[in-house]
């Protein structure tokens, strides 16, 4: 059966020197490039925010990065400004193989953040990825990239909920780990039936 690799947010801002650097974020590039040959389809995702996005602390008076806020769809962590559309921080890491079948952008609606590659953080607004995969008959998914405990985990949980067969290639992921978020994400993924490949 066809196997699909979904590469989550391997962008400059999530790598060392970037605005929301994930420790060791650039270490995922080599293993991901190497994995690509083993898959029938490759999808890349790109966090893609407009200036003044609601997930940026700077968009909320008196708020600092990593504090939380209540938005219409629930609690949202506030981030440093990152992955602004068209800027260098939003580009893929320069060494990432970008010869993918599809690049899906997310987080472009000013009022909603989107961690998952499938749904925005309101858990209702689709990105279109589910339809693309189903149209192509792609059912077996492996996820890798950044960050394990946010965009990778949210994508894996949505994929499992939608009935896809989901594996997370943990050695090709790195985490932010904000106040226990990694432990929580790992527990939730295991409970949801996501296969964790070390
Ligand atoms: C991400 C926080 C904000 C991620 C994206 O790719 O995990 N995290 N935007
Ligand atoms: Zn973001």
Write up what this structure looks like:
The chain has 198 residues and is of the alpha/beta class. The protein is 20% helix and 23% strand. It contains 4 helices and 8 strands. It has a 6-stranded parallel sheet with strand order 5-2-1-6-7-8, sandwiched between helices. A hairpin with a 2-residue loop joins strand 3 (68-71) and strand 4 (74-77). Helix 3 (148-161) packs parallel to helix 4 (181-191). It is globular and about 50 Å long. It starts with a strand and ends with a strand. The mean pLDDT is 97. Pyrazine-2-carboxylic acid is lined by residues 9, 14, 47, 79, 115, 146-147, 150-151. The site of zinc ion has 6 residues, from loops.
Q: On the 0-100 scale, what is the average pLDDT? A: 97
User: In which range does the helix fraction lie?
Assistant: 10-25%
What's the total helix number? Answer: 4
Strand-residue proportion: 15-25%
Structural class, please? alpha/beta
Low-confidence residue ranges: none
Kindly report the oligomeric state of this protein: single chain
Ligands (ions, cofactors included): pyrazine-2-carboxylic acid, zinc ion
Tally the beta strands: 8
> What's the SSE pattern?
EHEEEEHEHEHE
Biggest sheet: strands side by side, in what order?
A: 5-2-1-6-7-8
Q: Distance between the terminal alpha carbons, to the nearest Å?
A: 22 Å
Given the C-alpha coordinates, what overall shape results? globular
Largest sheet: 6 strands, parallel
Computed over alpha carbons, the radius of gyration is: 16 Å
Descriptive terms for the model:
198 residues; alpha/beta; 6-stranded parallel β-sheet; two-stranded antiparallel ribbon; 4 helices; 8 strands; globular; binds pyrazine-2-carboxylic acid; binds zinc ion
């Amino acid at each position: 059966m066809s196997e699909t690799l979904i590469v989550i947010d391997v962008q400059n801002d999530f790598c060392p020197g970037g605005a929301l650097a994930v420790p060791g974020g650039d270490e995922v590039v080599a293993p991901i490039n190497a994995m690509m040959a083993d898959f029938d389809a490759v999808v890349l995702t790109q966090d893609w925010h407009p200036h003044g996005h609601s997930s940026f602390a700077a968009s909320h008076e008196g708020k600092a990065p990593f504090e939380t806020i209540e938005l219409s769809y629930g609690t949202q962590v506030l981030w440093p400004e990152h992955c602004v559309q068209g800027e260098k921080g939003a580009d893929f890491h320069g060494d990432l193989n970008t010869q993918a079948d599809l690049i899906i952008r997310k987080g472009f609606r000013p009022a909603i953040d989107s961690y998952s590659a499938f749904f925005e953080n309101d858990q209702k607004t689709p990105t279109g990825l589910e339809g693309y995969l189903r149209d192509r008959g792609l059912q077996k998914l492996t996820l890798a990239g950044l960050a394990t405990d946010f965009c990778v985990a949210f994508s894996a949980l949505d994929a499992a909920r939608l009935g896809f067969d989901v594996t997370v290639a943990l050695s090709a992921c790195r985490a932010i780990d904000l106040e226990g978020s990694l432990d929580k994400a790992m527990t939730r993924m295991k409970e949801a039936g996501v296969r964790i490949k070390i």
